[in-house]
């Protein structure tokens, strides 16, 4: 993999820096930032030992930065210190990685859209309430629920309100009661949500079984009052997922469409014919609600077109 020349850190006139599949050298002591940079995109980019310091400096010393995309970035070394993303003009943040590399989120007063999809968190003491509170002002949020703490509702203390959040994408599952409780802690904090997408991760057997009454007990007066579009992807459609769908259809009075994309390759997948029959029997409180059922092969073939359709609804 190619290693960039350190001269890249001297390019003070850069407005866009987009790097893919390369290694960044250690920033020289003379590095004074990118004063005109508005867009920084790093995909499959590697940093050396203590590279988190360089990454933090690149962001912090780019005062005009509006778009930040960090996907599959990695940092070498056995230990990584905490580092902070803090940018006063940042409007869009994407951080997608296998590990969090001790990432902390600082003040982002201009942020409108955030995607934080992390598979593994290095510390079991991570404060997810504080992490999500940093995104209270966004209109669109994508977040992967932590899977390492299956016994704990990691968002139980969430008290901030996501008043302007319109679209929420959650990577989660319905296998554990605590995971469901974490999800609803966030949903109850988003009274004006219009689009909800749940991407099922790590499909596995249900550890806990719940029914539609369990979901109803979690409901509050402001829940789903503006919800119009729901999408569920990679779902084996076990009983908990089916009861969640039933609950959505019975509560969302403005619902226009519910898209269900089944992972029929899962060992725990419900037979599709059985799932369709069950879906047709669920009561729909919204007279406009339509249910669309397809498998994931269809979803991947038509993903771009499907997203355009959702945006038009």
Would you kindly provide a written description of the structure presented here, covering whatever features stand out?
- This is F-box/LRR-repeat protein 15/At3g58940/PEG3-like LRR domain-containing protein.
- This protein has 313 residues and is of the alpha/beta class.
- 23% of the residues lie in helices and 27% in strands.
- The protein has 8 helices and 14 strands.
- The protein has helices at 51-60, 128-133, 177-187, 212-217, 239-251, 272-281, 296-301, 303-312, and strands spanning 16-24, 39-47, 67-71, 74-75, 83-85, 92-99, 103-105, 113-120, 140-144, 167-172, 195-200, 229-235, 257-262, 290-295.
- Helix 1 links the parallel strand 2 (39-47) and strand 3.
- The model has no long low-confidence stretch (mean pLDDT 91).
Question: Summarize this, please?
Answer:
This is F-box/LRR-repeat protein 15/At3g58940/PEG3-like LRR domain-containing protein. The chain is α/β, with parallel strands linked by helices.
Helix content: 10-25%
Tertiary shape:
elongated
Distance between the termini: 44 Å
Oligomer state equals: single chain
Main sheet record: 12 strands, parallel
Mean pLDDT: 91
- Count of helical segments? 8
- The overall strand count is 14
Low-confidence runs: none
**Rg, nearest Å:** 21 Å
Order of helices and strands: EEHEEEEEEHEEHEHEHEHEHH
Per DSSP, what share of the residues sits in E-state strands of 2 or more residues? 25-35%
Structural class: alpha/beta
